[in-house]
Amino acid sequence: MFMVFRASLLLLLSQACFAVDSHQLLGNDANELSQQSQFNLTITPDGKGLPVGKGSAAQGAKLFYQKCSSCHGPGAIGASAEPLVGEVGSLNSTYPEKTVNSYWPYATSLFDYIRRAMPINAPFSLTPDQVYSLSAYILSQDGIIPIDIELNEESLPKIIMPNRDGFISFYPDKN
Amino acid sequence: MSEDSTQSRRQFLQKTALGGAFAGSFSLPILANADKLELPDNLPHWMRVPGADFSNYGQPSSHEQQIIRWISANPDALGNGVSWTPLHALQGTITPNGLHFERHHNGVPQIDPTQHILLIDGLVDRPLSFDVKSLMRYPMVSRTCFIECGGNSNSGWRSNPIQSQAGYAHGLVSNAEWTGIPLKLLLEEAGIKPSAKWVIAEGADAAALNISIPIEKLLDDALLALYQNGERLRPENGYPMRLVLPGWEGVLNVKWLRQLRLSEQPAMTRDETSQYTDLLADGKARQFSFINEAKSLITTPSLGMMLPDNPGIYQISGLAWSGRGKIARVEISTDGGDSWVDAELQGPILDKAFTRFNLAWKWQGEYAILQSRATDDSGYVQPTREALITNRGKHGFFHYNAIISWEITEEGDINHVYGF
């Protein structure tokens, strides 16, 4: 009887060494961090996340030749890197070309991508005004925006891209 | 042990051994008379000299140095491109860490783990940050699964079959045992708001790659992986931490993960709109086609090899995988798809992981076209190239999973073809 009692006591003691909770919660409060610009890089189609700034196609053209045309070609028609302009309306043809202007559904994605990844040898080196200018230059090449318009955080999300309705979502139906 | 003490210990052992030899020469007369070596001198050299020293981290044999990832990068931006796993030169199902395929958008960041954090914010009750040291204390699970780039096999869309070795045309897929923390634990610690439907993941590379993932997948089987095949992640595979989303295309398995922002809507980033979407013949494009559908590849015999004997028996062997579940069946055809025979599946057959298949084949010198066709446990059957193109047009570019054909000529040479 005593032995049985001792055995069950041992069992109880050994079980007590293991945690009831599966793990300790070790996340740090990050309210402030979450507000910092370094963690607010993504720009959504409604324009949320766009920095204050402005730029024109004329300014963008100059900048493009300085920083972009060595890879994207003169006039952004493509070289070692993808073409960015032209071919609007080509998607259902025999030779479709996916350029920013023919394929991308949102202008906000263009700003987001240039800001975070371009130029490829110096990401995050452009000012907001420079990114607005480059966006204006690219979009104006196919008449998506007038050549003399100033792009800023208000006007850029309002742009309707030619292929805005060109996508069929496979999620969740086909996944 | 210091060098000095190692040295003196070695000398001591040498002296002892000499002493032993002297002692032996007196007690064993047969050795005393021996004036030539007992064993033939055609023993291999490496049996007559001490081998190489120990190594802190092992490397493949110098005779296997041609087994490499094939790099295909932008000459103007060397960190932008891919490297292909040499699937044709590997066996089994686990891809060695140094040969796991790579896709980088702007190089491999050299991250100091003490300077790296993961932020979970957006539609959560409490935004939280986690450092690497803390994450190492969380419960972890291991999961063997493949990761396949959405652009794998994209040469298949070309009108002429590419003459590259199997892995160098279809090797943007690899299979590893990933160990890490179920994402669910970390998301629940932050407290998920009911309106959260998507998560914008961002990497800490020089492309700050960002992409939207349905929260449902992260709560299902996603891992925050810290280990790959038992060791910490390689830099080129996301060190110090990455997402692993079993069965979902590679770009979503964000490497060097720094942020997960919960949101109502996808962010429509570059890599979920202009890339990894499937342009159809009518000009519309499929978006959010996340799952890698069932696929298979004969890795041997394949292009670059040849069949030396006629008649001869050859082991047809290859890999099959599906992002929907387990491989249920792999069939082999040697006549370009007219007749099919079941291959043997090598166990264990794991969910969303490479499955090796094998079949012995007697070749008698006839012209042949070898094909493999995978079926997964959802009933999905790998399509012919013709069916894929009929369904999806000629310009899909991504998510190519059609049957792959190797032509065997009467001389035993092997070419890539699209069928008879």
Would you spell out the secondary-structure blueprint of this structure?
The complex is a heterodimer of chains A (175) and B (420).
Chain A lengths: L1 H15 L11 E2 L1 H5 L18 E3 H11 L1 H4 L27 H4 L3 H11 L10 H13 L9 E3 L14 E3 L6
Antiparallel strand pairs in A: 2-3
Chain B lengths: L2 H25 L1 H5 L36 E5 L2 E8 L17 E3 L12 E6 L5 E4 H4 L5 E8 L17 H5 L2 E10 H8 L7 E6 L6 E5 H6 L2 E6 L2 E2 L9 E3 L12 E7 L6 H4 L4 E2 L5 E3 L7 E6 L11 E10 L5 E7 L7 E2 L1 E2 L9 E9 L4 E9 L8 H8 L12 E4 L5 E4 L3
Parallel strand pairs in B: 4-13
Antiparallel strand pairs in B: 1-2, 2-3, 4-5, 6-7, 7-10, 8-9, 8-13, 10-11, 10-12, 14-15, 16-17, 17-21, 18-19, 18-22, 20-21, 22-23, 23-24
Describe the structure.
The complex is a heterodimer of chains A (175) and B (420). Helices cover 36% and strands 6% of the residues of chain A. In chain A, strands 2-3 form a two-stranded antiparallel ribbon. Chain A is globular, with a radius of gyration of 27 Å. In chain A, 34% of the residues are buried. The longest helix of chain A is centred in the N-terminal third of the chain and has 15 residues. Chain A is mainly alpha-helical and 175 residues long. In chain A, helix 3 packs across helix 7. In chain B, 15% of the residues lie in helices and 31% in strands. Chain B contains eight helices and 24 strands. Chain B is an alpha+beta fold and 420 residues long. The longest helix of chain B is centred in the first third of the chain and has 25 residues. The chains are: A mainly alpha (175), B alpha+beta (420). Strand 4 of chain A pairs parallel with strand 15 of chain B.
